[in-house]
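User: Sequence recovery, please. Input:
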């Protein structure tokens, strides 16, 4: 504190002596790294490279930087493989480019991170963005029992954001004996609901249209329903399937009978380390106790 006061006094005396030279102003350098795709971007081409545009030229070799492109496990349906995306990192003056070695997966969420960039103005803070690739939604899948002979098919429904909201199954060609037209025989309806980060948390599967013979009405016959639970990082930790609605005849009220539970465990890096499939209540007849029947489990181990 005394040192600061002393310097202040001396500076004031210099000013009083009529020194006309302006005082030096140390303006903080603003380092920026503009990343494309931007954080939260959607519908990104599967062929798009990652571009980082700097406001000052690089001073070190690009080999000194660290870049990674990974599947963001917390928001993807498939979580047991395909973690790291291989690619090449190059730089020209103020632009750093990460080019994936192969096209990305359509409709998948990725996280791109880069660090270790040093410019003429200093080190650039590490950057991380999350984006989702463009996907051409499947409209219909057809199962054939023989060449050119349709056995059944499923149609997919989406909302305005492109999120899958339901499946409609057909098992017969109808009175005209021709498949893929308006009189085909519907045999199932699957509805996805209560979405979190684009992923459903509740599923309803119906196998009969009910007394009114109209699908998509309140008397449809529920076959099973499923519940997915996500943690604070958006990772699917529990996947529960129920075979009945219980005594109150309502789904998702807590008195249903389980058909299976899938439990996923993650480490501090948010990578799945264990995947357990529970298929029975065990000898005590009570689900989710220590003697539950487990068909098996997977353990995932990762290198550096």
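Assistant: Recovered sequence (304 residues):
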């Amino acid at each position: 504190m005394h040192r600061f006061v002393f310097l202040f006094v001396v500076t004031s005396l210099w000013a009083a002596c009529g020194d006309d030279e302006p005082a030096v102003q140390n303006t903080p350098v603003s380092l920026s790294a503009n990343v494309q795709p931007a954080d939260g971007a959607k519908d990104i081409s599967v062929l798009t490279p990652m571009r980082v545009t700097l406001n000052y030229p690089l001073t070190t070799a690009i080999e000194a930087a660290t870049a990674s492109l990974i599947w963001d496990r917390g928001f993807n349906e498939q979580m047991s493989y395909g973690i790291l995306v291989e690619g090449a990192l190059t730089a020209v003056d103020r632009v750093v480019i990460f080019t994936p070695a192969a096209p990305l997966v359509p409709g998948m969420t990725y996280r791109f991170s880069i660090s270790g960039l040093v410019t003429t103005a200093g080190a650039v803070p590490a950057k991380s963005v999350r984006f989702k690739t463009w996907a051409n939604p499947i409209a219909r899948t057809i199962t054939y029992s023989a060449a050119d002979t349709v056995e059944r098919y499923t149609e997919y429904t989406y909302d305005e954001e492109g999120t899958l909201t339901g499946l409609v199954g057909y098992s017969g060609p109808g009175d005209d004996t021709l498949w893929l037209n308006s009189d085909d025989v519907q045999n199932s309806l699957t509805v996805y609901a209560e979405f979190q980060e684009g992923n459903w948390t509740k599923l309803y599967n119906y196998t009969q249209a009910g007394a009114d013979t109209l699908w998509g009405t309140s008397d449809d016959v529920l076959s099973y329903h499923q519940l997915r639970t996500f943690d604070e990082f958006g990772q699917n930790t529990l996947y529960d399937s129920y075979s009945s609605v219980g005594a109150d005849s309502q789904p998702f009220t807590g008195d249903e009978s389980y058909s299976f539970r899938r439990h996923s465990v993650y480490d501090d890096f948010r990578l799945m380390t264990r995947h357990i499939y529970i298929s029975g209540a065990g000898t005590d007849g009570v689900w989710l106790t220590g003697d539950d029947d487990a068909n098996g489990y997977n353990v995932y181990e990762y290198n550096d």
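The first strand starts at residue 33 and ends at 36.
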